[in-house]
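Materials and Methods. Structural model of Protein kinase domain-containing protein. The 246-residue sequence of Protein kinase domain-containing protein from Fusarium piperis was retrieved and submitted for structure prediction as follows.
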Amino acid sequence: MRIAVPFSNPPEECLSIGPSQGLAYALDQDIVLKLPFQYEVTMDTELSHCWDLSMGSFVAMEKEVAVYEALQAEPHPNFARMLATNKTDYLFLERLEPLQTKWKAASQETHHRWVLELLAAVSWLEKLGFVNGDLAVRNIGIDRANNLKIFDFGSAISRSHWDYANEIPRDRFNLSTCIHFLLSGVDPLADVQSRAEAVEIRGMLEAGRWKISEDACLLADIISDGWTGKERCGQVGHEADLDNWR
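The predicted structure was written out as tokens:
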């Protein structure tokens, strides 16, 4: 089924990859347009599941807008910037380079700084009353000043949501995966080929049976706690463990 877009000639560079809650287009080297996708409505009821997907995309946009509006009131340097607009059905965002693209050329010192910036961003988001809901390496970018920034908040959950408390351990799991990648360049779930393989690897991580990469051993306890769900990972920061990086 064809996706309806609000222009006759879409921008050539679509940045959306894989399953997505919305469409992202690069307008130029500096600006990204993000909008919900909408399948065409037809008389064919066998395609009604597509309409459900469309509605889910609009809900995700509402969640993302809520996070960016909170960040406008209380900004933080480690989030992608939303460019000023009075619209709520699409977003103009700062364009970032994918973390995966920038990681290899960066120094170990920079990797360590990026970990601190990621922790600062996650902590700030919780201060604003949200958990990310989809924290992942693919949703982390690097700006022109070589600073880490996070984006994509279509799965964000607010503190008032009934499942907020249960989402925190899931967010910690994803945070550990991102920290492991920042230190080592390895995302254990990056190359899975099936759902069964993803479930198997995730089970190994949760059971503490995954060998942490040598370059990530400095924060092995923190990473392991996030993956296995230990209580001490319930608060972002770990200042004592990170003092030697400052």
